[in-house]
Amino acid sequence: MQLNEKVVTGAPIPAASVILLRDAPGGFEVFLVQRHSKSTSFGGAHVFPGGKVDKEDHDDAAVGRLAAPRDAMHRALGETALDATQAAALHFAACRETFEECGVLLAGRQGRADAGLQAEALAAHREGASFADVIEQMDLSVDVSGMSPWSRWITPVMPSLSTKRFDTRFFVVALPGEQTALHDNREAMDSLWVDPRQGLDRYWANEMQLAPPQIMTLAHLSRFKSVPDVLADAGRRAPPLIQPEPMQVDGLRVVAYPGDPGHPLRERAMPGPSRLVFRNGHFEPNDGYDAFFA
User: Fold this and answer.
1) What is the CATH number of domain 13-238?
2) What is the spatial distance between Cα 166 and Cα 10, in angstroms, rounded to a whole number?
3) How remote is the C-alpha of 146 from its chain's centroid?
4) Long-range contact set of residues 98-101: C-beta below 8 Å, sequence gap at least 24
5) d(Cα 141, Cα 128) in Å, to the nearest integer?
6) Biggest CA-to-CA distance, the chain
7) Strands 50-52 and 148-154: what pairing?
8) Quick check: 241 and 247 in contact, CB under 8 A?
9) Residue 100: which of 16, 165, 43 has the closest Cα?
10) Which DSSP state fits 203?
11) CA 195, 28, 41, 44: dihedral to nearest 10 degrees?
12) Within 13 Å, how many C-alpha atoms sit on residue 264's CB side?
């Protein structure tokens, strides 16, 4: 991975990312897409589906398709600086990006979509219809009832693997029954379902690249045994705000997180290592592999 050395002074771009979950023998798996190697953000890395919030995500017609009250989505995010329309736009963007990047339709009629409705929506999308067009033409409601905010990450002015700053809200949701998740072959060139701990194993073995938010999120998710466990945890707490603090230590890039001595916030925001060190071409815990799970 190529480490960024440039300071980015612009305001972070609002974005939404979705952690898709599905049951698996002995536990659960998460869905990752591999960004195209020429992408300006996280090129070649495996990430959760997502992207920036578009202007169209704020349209009244689009937001009006959300099958949830705006004030409920606002409360779920727990951000007083947001208004209810902005909160709704973030939820809509999360569902749109999930559909555009991996074809999963978080919408339906009187509930989630099945595989047949997913296929119909994807066919319309391949013919040029946007996500907003698809749900309008098919008269669908965008279902966020099973989707919960998980965390909020704000890129520091010295991003690790990008030349852009993002203010990303991560959401967790279970894959709707019978649907299939596939990468789009445009922004993403590959994809996989993986157990959180196995994902970290593969990263440690240099079999895949991960950006720090994905590393720390997989370490967090490795504490849970099932999809219901993850969703229950998300539903009973406010999503933590994570603002990484980059620094140089002994000539190496270090990224500190809340609770680390090098971070201004002393209270931990999530389990796992309190800092990552860029060493041997990737980010790793200062105390080695086992620190992911300590």
Assistant:
1) 3.90.79.10
2) 10
3) 15
4) 98/18, 98/20, 98/49, 98/50, 98/173, 99/125, 99/131, 99/134, 100/51, 100/125, 100/131, 100/184, 101/33, 101/49, 101/50, 101/51, 101/183, 101/184, 101/187, 101/188
5) 20
6) 58
7) unpaired
8) no
9) 16
10) H
11) 40
12) 5
User: Tokens for 193?
Assistant: 């379902």
Per-residue pLDDT reduced to its tens digit, 226-277: 999 999 999 999 999 999 999 999 999 999 999 999 999 999 999 999 999 9
Question: What single-letter amino acid sits at 149?
Answer: P
What residue has token string 């907003």? 132
Residues in the chain: 294
| CA–CA separation, 140 and 150 (whole Å) | 25
Taking only the tens place, the pLDDT of each residue in 130-159 is 999 999 999 999 999 899 999 999 999 998
Tokens 């536990």 locate to 27
